[in-house]
Every structure is written in structure tokens, then in C-alpha cells.
Amino acid sequence: MLIASKKYFLLHAPRKTGKTSALLEMMERINEKDDYNVLYANIEAAQTTRNDVDRGMDAVCTTIYESADTYLDNTEIGQWYREEGRAINPESRLTSLLKHFAKISTKPLVLFIDEADALVGDTLISLLRLSITPDTGRLCSASRIFPPKYRIMWSS
Predict the structure, then answer these.
(1) Range 9-153 classified under CATH 3.40.50.300
(2) Backbone angles phi, psi at 43, to 5 degrees
(3) What is the pLDDT of residues 102-134, one digit of tens each?
(4) Between 148 and which of 10, 21, 120, 124 could a Cys-Cys bridge form, CB atoms 3.0 to 4.6 Å apart?
């Protein structure tokens, strides 16, 4: 419902309560319906880059194209990133990757980002500046940093 109405949302719950499992299950179910290209990307690895935006955005983009390969059997986005995307300035790299992916996709792109709250410094700022527009898709975060239009919460 939220995706169809083009809303973004935040999945918020305490640690170890199943946020990642919920995102993976949602991704599988939505992809089975074949209306969207849904990706799950755990970007926690970018945490180690601290204020190195170039390395941080490279880690985030690499995670996304590897997810496209794993979950959608799409190797084209990874090839584009390795050949062209890495040359784009770090602050625009993620938006460019998503715009390219949306352009080549036959269906709307939905991105589930996990562990975004692990990012710090300028890498976090670059992610927060991500342009969410009709041509780049929809965003869901399983963290605590995006100001959600809709917040899905549960407690144990």
C-alpha cells in the first residue's frame, strides 16, 4: 500500500526484533508479484569509511549493485557502476546509480536500506541528501535517521 501510493517509510524497532527479516520477506513477496524491482541493501560496511565520502559511497553503491545481482539477477547495473559510475563525484554517485537503474528497469525500483544509522560523518550526509524522485524510485530505511512520512513500529 505505501509503495503503491509512492510513500517512503521507516521501519523502527529495537535491536534483534526482526527488522531485517521483515524487509527481506517484504522484498521477496513484492518481487514475486512482479510489479516492482525491490532490492534489499545492508550498508553497514560503509561505517568504516567515516568521513571518506568517496569510499563510503563506493561501499553503498557496491552493496546495491551486488544486491541487484543477488536478488534480481541483474548484472547490468554493476557493470555500469564499475565502468562509469565510479567516475561520478561521490556526492552524486548514489543518485546517479539509482537513476541509471530506474532508467534500465522495466518496473519501478524500490530500495530497502538496512543499517543506514551505522553511517557517520560526511558519508551519512551524502546518503541523507539522496534525491528521492519519481525517476530514482522509492526508499525504505530500517534505521533511525530518515524522517519518515510513515513509521511502522512494533514492540515486543
Answers:
(1) yes
(2) -100, 20
(3) 889 888 888 888 988 888 887 877 777 764 555
(4) 10
Contact present, 61 and 111 (Cβ < 8 Å): no
DSSP line for 29-92: HHHHHTSSEEEEEE-GGGGGGTT-HHHHHHHHHHHHHHHHHHHH---HHHHHHHHTGGGS-HHH
Per-residue pLDDT reduced to its tens digit, 45-65: 888 888 898 999 999 999 999
**Residues 36, 86: Cα–Cα separation, whole Å:** 26
Grid coordinates of 101: 537503474
In the chain, where the domains are located: 9-153
DSSP element (H, E) containing 147: none
